[in-house]
Design a protein that fits this description.
By secondary structure, this protein is an alpha/beta fold. It contains 14 helices and 14 strands. Bound molecules: nicotinamide-adenine-dinucleotide.
């Protein structure tokens, strides 16, 4: 199939390159010229393990290419919308990029005879594909809804292991308006050993939102129980081991820590909450999920303050990305921790193997270091905020106070956030 992907961020670029890997001919479209140039030069603007090598392979085979020109889209059969859906002030999702991309796509499809299929992959609130994307597309393209295949295919990849997740998904959910569109979208994933769930578009949209709300709530519950365990002098990691042996609970996603971040969990929970409130539905669980999460990064600084005077001290911050394996710092715990440290008069040294360029833009006053070892030089204490493997080595720290927010190391002067 000939596919076009609108938006070349973490989801669009990974999906595009992986669809090429599955044997399709892929055209990626982005409005940012520098991103398109960098992609066509074989340099992904984002870091994901395995992505660069796969991108270069498909560029040289001619099975993948990027452009800023929507006019090339009619030459493809199916278009995926993968643009961002950030939060608005009230927590609901900002659909302006979805609307803009849909209109530009519709205009480009005006001259195309026959049918074209459009699949929403961006995370959007229930009913967006049916009530926003479909009508906008029909209006901008001048096509009847019978000439447009419309579907919603949420993306479940995890940053850090995105390529692996895309090529070995737990499930593929396809919310299609009709049988033909379902068959077309399902055929794109042929060759992957996975379960395919067919729904209507609004149910597919809700599955994505509900999955993220569920996972985020689980993390906040784990973190709250972890905080309690620490107050009791217990190690939550052992407690989690025992809890996770119950098959109704399972062992995954039971790690307590300094909070979840990234471009999905916080914004998607806020958006489900805003949606529920707009419909008069109570949101006690979602409220608690967010408030526990806001407290966890601050807890890192509180633990530090219990052990030393922060004002005038030099603190080494290890890990800035919201999780290992990515350069993404959106809503990362490090943003809260570093602003708190600076506000309290500490000097901050920081190191992250991937996320320093993005972080430097937000915090130019921090001293950025080329390794964990260099970062720890001259510091009075260290805070570990991302579980990069390289922070596990206990010999890095000597007798320095280490507050570990992710459970990666143990030294002789160490404190864990929940153990
Ligand atoms: N990042 C994740 O791990 C993840 C996982 C699953 C789902 N999602 C969802 O997927 C969507 C995209 O997320 P992301 O992290 O890839 O976002 P991103 O911000 O990394 O990328 C969005 C891209 O869209 C481009 N864009 C914006 N408007 C455009 C337009 N009109 N035409 C063409 N390109 C345009 C931007 O330049 C950018 O490159 C969001 O809805 C997100 O919630 C993200």
């Amino acid at each position: 199939m000939r596919l076009s992907i609108i938006g070349t961020g973490y989801v669009g670029l990974v999906s595009g390159v992986c669809f090429a890997e599955l044997g399709h001919q892929v055209l990626c479209v982005d409005t940012v010229k520098e991103k398109v140039e960098s992609i066509n030069a074989g340099e992904p603007p984002i870091f994901e393990e395995g992505l660069e090598e796969m991108l270069q392979r498909h560029l040289s085979r001619g099975t993948f290419r990027a452009t800023t020109d929507y006019e090339e889209v009619p030459g493809t059969d199916i278009t995926f919308l993968c643009v961002g859906t950030p939060s608005l002030e009230d927590g609901s999702l900002d659909l302006r990029y979805v609307r803009r991309a849909t209109e530009d796509l519709g205009k480009a499809l005006r001259g195309k005879g026959g049918r074209h299929t459009v699949v929403v992959k961006s995370t959007v609130p229930p009913n967006t594909t049916r009530d926003v994307v479909g009508p906008l597309l029909a209006k901008a393209s001048g096509k009847g809804l019978d000439e447009i295949g419309l579907a919603m295919n949420p993306e479940f990849l995890k940053e850090g292991v995105a390529v692996r997740d895309f090529l070995s998904p737990d499930r593929v959910v396809i919310g299609a308006m009709d049988d033909r569109t379902f068959a077309e979208v399902a055929s794109l994933y042929e060759g992957l050993e996975t379960k395919v769930l067919r729904t209507d578009p609004s149910t597919a949209e809700m599955i994505k939102m509900a999955s993220n709300a569920f996972l985020a709530a689980r993390i906040s519950l784990v973190n709250e129980l972890g905080n309690l365990c620490k107050a009791l002098g217990l190690d939550f990691r052992k407690v989690a081991e025992g809890v996770g042996m119950d098959p109704r609970i399972g062992p995954l996603f039971l790690r307590a820590g300094c909070g979840f971040g990234g471009s999905c969990f916080p914004k998607d929970v806020r958006s489900v909450r805003a949606l529920a409130r707009s419909l008069g539905v109570r949101t006690d669980m979602l409220d608690a999920t967010l408030s526990v999460n806001e407290g966890q990064p601050r807890r890192m600084v509180e633990l530090l303050e219990r052990r030393m005077e922060v004002y005038g001290s030099t603190i080494a911050v290890l890990g800035l990305a919201f999780k290992p394996g990515t350069d993404d710092i959106r809503e990362a715990s490090s943003l809260t921790v570093v602003s708190e440290l600076l506000r309290k008069g500490a000097k901050v040294r920081a190191y992250d193997p991937q996320a320093m360029p993005a972080f430097r833009k937000a915090f130019p006053q921090v001293t950025y270091c080329s390794s964990a070892k260099e970062c720890l030089k001259g510091a009075d204490a260290a805070l570990i905020l991302t579980e990069w493997n390289e922070f596990a080595d206990p010999t890095l720290y000597g007798s320095m106070l280490v507050i570990d927010g992710r459970g990666v190391t143990k030294t002789n002067n160490y404190e864990g956030i929940c153990w």
